[in-house]
């Protein structure tokens, strides 16, 4: 789909805050609310926007995000069965098909490594002859960046994130229902949420504000399908040496300001960082890799995977 300047500005703004009211967003863009809604609906219909989601810091709720990198044999029948089973698993928050040294990436939420082991057995049961290897990363901290490539010279001060020490904050059934609804559609109006959970408007509004205050909800994001506007997503896997807090902050600042970098995750395992980028072609990808190495001499190696298709992404899969 060919995007005009208004489309690009809408996509950028919704990647900053998907819950912006149409009146507020319309004033920023010089569009009437009904015209803005028409454009958003068209972007959704054309699958440029795939979903709107609340961004959750599930570390606060006692969950760890594990990245599972799956290598497998060539078996189309088993592949389809494996994809169906994985996509339906209640602890899988992210699932994508990729190209390169691995075939699938799974984001798995678990309370601890013991539970992860049990969940992994559930998924891989019946696929011992299909799966060749599973490389596990523990995800420590994530920063999500707006799609800066849609516009020029945009300075974003706050980014949705998760990470830090594992907490034990408790949320009740009403909070869980609200979180579930917002994780599936961050643009639901308060009145719509209130109707679905059968609670007063004021109660729902207060609950959402409290979830934001406790930083369980850290932002609201519009997810896009880059292939719909002739971009390609890649995952960069970085191994570093001699990193310290100061050098790490410098790397974060670089990624935060780079137009093509969409998110970065600090990890523990075979790689130290996962970095998501959207680019127009292979040459631009190689330029991003070169710029990263120039900005951070501590990088020993950068591997990359092509993200062919995101099969599932929900930050509250339960």
Could you please describe the fold and organization of this structure?
With 318 residues, the chain is an alpha+beta fold. It has 3 domains: 5-54 and 174-224, Arc Repressor Mutant, subunit A; 59-139, Lrp/AsnC effector binding domain/regulation of amino acid metabolism (RAM) domain (Alpha-Beta Plaits, 2-Layer Sandwich); 141-163 and 227-313, Lrp/AsnC effector binding domain/regulation of amino acid metabolism (RAM) domain (Alpha-Beta Plaits, 2-Layer Sandwich). 37% of the residues lie in helices and 30% in strands. The protein contains 10 helices and 11 strands. It has helices at 5-16, 22-29, 33-45, 76-88, 113-124, 173-184, 190-197, 201-213, 245-257, 282-295, and strands at 49-56, 64-72, 92-99, 104-110, 131-144, 161-163, 217-224, 232-240, 261-268, 273-279, 299-313. It has an 8-stranded antiparallel β-barrel with strand order 2-4-3-11-8-10-9-5, surrounded by 4 helices. The longest helix is centred in the last third of the chain and has 14 residues, at 282-295. It is globular and about 50 Å long.
